[in-house]
Amino acid sequence: MKESEGCVLCTKEPATTKEHIPSRGVFLVKPKQYLTVPACERCNNSAKLDDQYFRDVLAACSTTEEGRAVWRNKVMARFKERPATKIGFRDQMAPVNVTSEVGGSMVLPGIRVNAERFERCIRKMVWGLYWWHSSRLLDPTTPLDVHFLNFVQAPAFFRDQKQVSIFRKAAPGVYRAPGEVPTFCYLFGITAEVSIWYFIFYRQNMAIGFTDSARRSADV
Q1: Verdict on whether the full-model pTM lies above 0.85
Q2: How would you class 113 by CB atoms within 10 Å of its CB: exposed for 0-12, middle for 13-18, buried for 19 or more?
């Protein structure tokens, strides 16, 4: 198991615990090789509510079998004991105008997402996986660009040949087993200055993270 004396998420405090990447709630069945990274208590504990929110929203927006199973078994199952979660979803619902290549323009039920909470979850995954794959700490001041794609937006993204070329060069991540990939998988690329990450949840929603340490130096 890879080890670090310091927290790989904040890079400041001693590592006294382990943080799962991604959070355990994403999976229905625990992966055989569940990746953890050294973390401090503050980083570990401060991420729990954001991780839960992240998983709940992704499952709520999913139409795949895997996403719906997480919604039924891990989100809806807790509504009775945590009615505030159900109320929160109700208050976040809003109609969304979308245009798809198959169905044309339509209005669908949507959820207003807290972008800051989503980005914090992606940041934790990027910083943890960067250390895991490179054995280097990623400076916490490094800019992180995050983009989210749903099943409506994905076709246009993959028509961009530049984006497709970068995607095809990405290496597969740790989660490759047949029972894991439909729930969560990722691809990545790391160079001396930049890194790119493709996180795919429930075969439907993709988050793309991009870091550029050279841009950080230029901004300082």
Answers
A1: yes
A2: middle
